[in-house]
TrEMBL record:
It catalyses: Hydrolysis of terminal non-reducing beta-D-galactose residues in beta-D-galactosides. GO terms for molecular function: beta-galactosidase activity. This is Beta-galactosidase. Residues 554-610 form the Beta-galactosidase galactose-binding domain. InterPro entries: B-gal_1-like (IPR026283), BetaGal1-like_ABD1 (IPR048912), BetaGal_gal-bd (IPR048913), Galactose-bd-like_sf (IPR008979), GH (IPR017853), Gly_Hdrlase_35_cat (IPR031330), Glyco_hydro_35_CS (IPR019801), Glycoside_Hdrlase_35 (IPR001944). PANTHER family: BETA-GALACTOSIDASE RELATED (PTHR23421). It comes from Paraburkholderia phymatum (strain DSM 17167 / CIP 108236 / LMG 21445 / STM815). The active site is at E183, E257. GO terms for biological process: carbohydrate metabolic process. Residues 32-349 form the Glycoside hydrolase 35 catalytic domain. Its EC number is 3.2.1.23. It is an enzyme of class 3 (hydrolase). Keywords: Glycosidase, Hydrolase, Plasmid.
Length: 632
C-alpha cells in the first residue's frame, strides 16, 4: 500500500483545506483512500500541449464545474524534446509545472501520464522522431532489446523527475499517481520494460504511487501491470471494473479512459463520436462510487504538425488525423459547454453533497457578421515556395532519396529533385510515399500522390492518385535534353498506435520511371531541400512569385479587429495546406474534410491588424476565407 501526504488546499472534507492528507490504496484493493476514507477519483483529461497557455485555467475550471475533482494529463515527450538532447519545459504551453500548479490552485488533484508513449492521436504517440534515424530501431522495449531507445527514455524521465517530485502529493503537490507507459498490453508483453520504467522514477526519488492503463483483454493476455500499481481500464464501465477486481483483488481498479466522443480522420464522412451518450455509464459509476477519467473532457487542437495517424487494421490504409481534437467532448474545441456537458454535470451533481461551482463564462468570439453580411477575408498572392527555397542539404550525388528522419527533420515538407538527362515522359512511381507528394517536371505540375485514399470526385481535378504511379507530361511538352524532376513531399503525421509506428516520412521507396517502351530507370543524383516550415522560414519569406501558375504559393490577408476573440477560419474554398496567424501555425486544412475550419484562439490575435498566411499545395488563385464562430 502506498501512502502519500498532501498539504495543499483541496476540497476533500470537513477537516479543513490546509491540513495534510494521505492518499493510499485500500488494503483489500477496494478503492482509493484519502485520510483513510474512501475517495472517488472523478477525473477529466486535458492536454496542455493542445490548449493555449492563457486558457489553461479556464479549461480546468470548466472540468471542475462539471463535477471533476481531478485532472488527468498526458505529457507529449516530442513536444518537449524538440531536438535530440534539447528539452523545453518553459516556453508557452510547455510549462508542465505551471499547469499542474494551476490545477492545485483550483483545488484539483492530478493524474500524471508522461508516457514515454501516450498514443493520444499525437505524432508517433509522443515519441521523438529522431529515434527513427536508426534503420533497425525498436520502440517501446527494454534495454536488452534496444538500449538506444531506453537511453533516450532515461534522459527524458531524468528531465521530468526533478520537476515532478515536488508536485507529488507526499511533497505538497496535487499529483496522486503516475502512469507507467500507456496501453502497453495492446502492443507487446514485456514485464521487464515496464519494470525498468518504474525503476527510473524510483531511482529519482519518486516511489509511487504508480498505475497502468489498458483494455481488459490486453491486460489479461499480456500482464501489462506493475508491482503494487493500480489498474486503469480503457473504454471501461462499472461491470469491467468489477471483473478486473476479481482477477487482481489486491489493487484498486478504475475506468481510466471513458470515451465521451471519438477521434476523426481526414476523409471521414463526418465528425466522429457525436452520437455518444455517457449518461448511463456516468450514472452507474457515480452510484457505485467508482473512480473514472473522461478521455477527453476537452480535447483542444493539435496545432502545427503534431496530429498523428492510424493504420486501419483491416485494410492497411493510412488514416491521418484532422487538426481539431474536438473529439465530440463535453467541452468543445473552443472551450464551450455542450449540451452533453450540462447533462453530465446534472448526473454527477445528484450524487454530491456540495453544490458544484457555476459554469465559467464562455470565451468571447469575433463576430462573423459585419454591416455588409458575412465577414470574409480576401487574401492575395504573396510569395512562391519556388522563389524561397533554402540551399539543398546534400550534393547531387545522393544515390536515392531518404526519409525526413535521416536528414534530422521532424515535420513539414521536403523537396527532392534530380535532373533527368534523357527525358521521355512515361510513368513516375514513387512507391508508398509518406504521405502526400506533388510532382513537377521542368516547372510543370504533373500530379500528386496521396498515401490516404481520396474520394474520386475530390482527386480528379488535380490529378491526385492513391499510391499509384503519376503520368508524366508528354516528352514533347518538355523538349529539353535535361529536365528537372521535383517531388515535394508533405509528412502528415506519424502513426501513433499499433505495430506500424516505425512510420518515417518522405520518400521511403526507390523512385522509378517507366517509359512508354516498358523500360525502367531509377534516377540518381538527388538533391534534398528541407522545408520544416518553422517560424524563422515563414517570417523571412521574400514576397516574390515569378511563376504565378505553378502550385506551391503563399497567400496573405489582413484581419483587422477592434478587440480580440476566438475565431474559426473557414477554408472550404481552398484545397490543401497550412495556415499561420501572426506566425502561429494553426494546423492543416484539406478539402477532403470533414474539417473545413481552423480554430484560432484569441490570445494569438491582437487589436488592429493581424496577418493571415496560407500555404496551399494546389491553389494558384486566391479564394475567400470566411470568419465563423464554430467548428461546423
Amino acid at each position: 500500500m502506498y501512502m502519500t501526504r498532501h498539504a495543499s488546499k483541496q476540497t476533500t472534507g470537513a477537516d479543513g483545506l490546509d491540513s495534510p492528507h494521505v492518499f493510499s490504496f485500500a488494503p483489500n484493493g477496494d478503492g482509493f483512500l484519502l485520510d483513510g476514507k474512501p475517495f472517488q477519483i472523478r477525473s477529466g483529461e486535458l492536454h496542455p500541449a493542445r490548449i493555449p497557455v492563457e486558457y489553461w485555467r479556464h479549461r480546468i475550471q470548466m472540468a471542475k464545474a462539471m463535477g471533476m475533482n481531478t485532472i488527468a494529463l498526458y505529457v507529449m515527450w516530442n513536444y518537449h524534446e524538440t531536438r535530440e538532447g534539447t528539452f523545453d519545459f518553459q516556453t508557452d504551453n510547455r510549462d508542465i509545472e505551471a499547469f499542474i500548479r494551476l490545477c492545485q490552485a483550483e483545488n484539483m488533484w492530478v493524474l500524471f501520464r508522461p508516457g514515454p508513449y501516450v498514443c493520444a492521436e499525437w505524432d508517433l504517440g509522443g515519441i521523438p522522431s529522431y529515434l527513427l534515424k536508426y534503420a533497425d530501431i525498436r520502440l517501446r522495449t527494454d534495454y536488452a532489446s534496444d538500449a538506444r531507445y531506453m537511453r533516450a527514455v532515461e534522459r527524458y524521465i531524468d528531465e521530468l523527475v526533478p520537476r515532478v517530485r515536488p508536485l507529488m502529493a507526499q511533497d505538497g503537490g496535487p499529483i496522486l499517481m503516475i502512469q507507467i507507459e500507456n496501453e502497453f498490453g495492446s502492443f507487446d508483453r514485456n514485464r521487464a520494460y515496464l519494470e525498468e520504467l518504474r525503476q527510473l522514477w524510483m531511482r529519482g526519488g519518486i516511489p509511487g504511487p504508480f498505475y497502468t492503463e489498458d483494455g481488459v483483454v490486453q491486460l489479461q493476455q499480456n500482464l501489462s501491470y506493475v508491482a503494487d500499481g493500480a489498474i486503469a481500464l480503457s473504454n471501461a464501465n462499472a461491470a469491467q471494473i468489477d471483473a478486473v477486481r476479481k482477477i487482481f483483488p489486491s489493487v484498486p481498479a478504475m475506468a481510466g479512459e471513458v470515451y465521451p466522443g471519438w477521434l476523426t480522420h481526414w476523409g471521414d464522412d463526418a465528425f466522429q463520436g457525436t452520437s455518444v451518450d455517457l449518461s448511463a455509464t456516468l450514472d452507474e459509476l457515480m452510484r457505485n462510487k467508482q473512480s473514472f477519467n473522461l478521455y477527453v473532457i476537452h480535447g483542444g487542437t493539435s496545432f502545427g504538425f503534431y496530429a498523428g495517424a492510424n493504420v486501419d487494421a483491416d485494410s492497411g490504409e493510412y488514416q491521418p488525423d484532422i487538426t481539431s481534437y474536438d473529439y465530440a467532448a463535453p467541452i468543445n474545441e473552443q472551450g464551450a459547454a455542450t449540451a452533453r456537458y450540462l447533462t453530465y454535470r446534472g448526473i454527477i451533481a445528484r450524487y454530491l453533497s456540495a453544490p458544484l461551482p457555476d459554469v465559467p463564462m464562455p470565451i468571447a468570439t469575433i463576430p462573423s457578421m459585419d454591416s455588409n453580411g458575412i465577414r470574409r477575408l480576401m487574401p492575395r498572392r504573396f510569395a512562391s515556395l519556388w522563389d524561397n527555397l533554402p540551399a539543398a542539404l546534400a550534393p547531387a550525388d545522393t544515390m536515392q532519396p531518404q526519409p525526413f528522419e535521416m536528414y534530422g527533420q521532424a515535420f513539414g515538407f521536403v523537396l527532392y529533385r534530380t535532373k533527368l538527362e534523357r527525358y521521355a515522359g512515361g510513368m513516375l512511381d514513387i512507391g508508398d510515399v509518406h504521405d502526400y507528394a506533388t510532382v513537377f517536371v521542368g516547372d510543370q505540375y504533373a500530379g500528386a500522390v496521396s498515401r490516404t485514399r481520396i474520394r474520386e470526385q475530390l482527386a480528379s481535378p488535380r490529378n491526385v492518385v492513391h499510391r499509384q504511379p503519376v503520368a508524366l507530361p508528354d516528352a514533347s511538352s518538355a523538349p529539353r535534353a535535361s529536365v528537372l524532376l521535383e517531388i515535394l513531399v508533405e509528412g502528415m503525421g506519424r502513426v501513433n498506435y499499433g505495430h506500424s509506428m516505425i512510420d518515417r516520412k518522405g520518400i521511403v521507396d526507390p523512385v522509378v520511371i517507366h517509359d512508354a517502351s516498358g523500360a525502367s530507370e531509377i534516377p540518381q543524383g538527388w538533391e534534398v531541400v528541407p522545408l520544416p516550415m518553422e517560424t524563422s522560414f515563414i517570417e523571412n519569406l521574400r514576397p516574390i512569385c515569378s511563376d504565378a501558375s505553378r502550385p506551391g504559393i503563399f497567400f496573405v490577408a489582413t484581419l483587422s479587429i477592434r478587440a480580440t476573440g476566438d475565431v474559426y477560419l473557414d477554408m472550404s474554398e481552398w484545397i490543401k495546406g497550412i495556415v499561420w496567424v501572426n506566425g502561429r501555425n494553426l494546423g492543416r486544412y484539406w478539402h477532403v474534410g470533414p474539417q473545413k475550419r481552423l480554430y484560432c484562439p484569441a490570445p494569438w490575435l491582437k487589436p488592429g491588424d493581424n496577418t493571415l498566411l496560407i500555404f496551399d499545395l494546389h491553389q494558384t488563385d486566391a479564394k475567400p476565407v470566411s470568419l465563423t464562430s464554430s467548428l461546423s
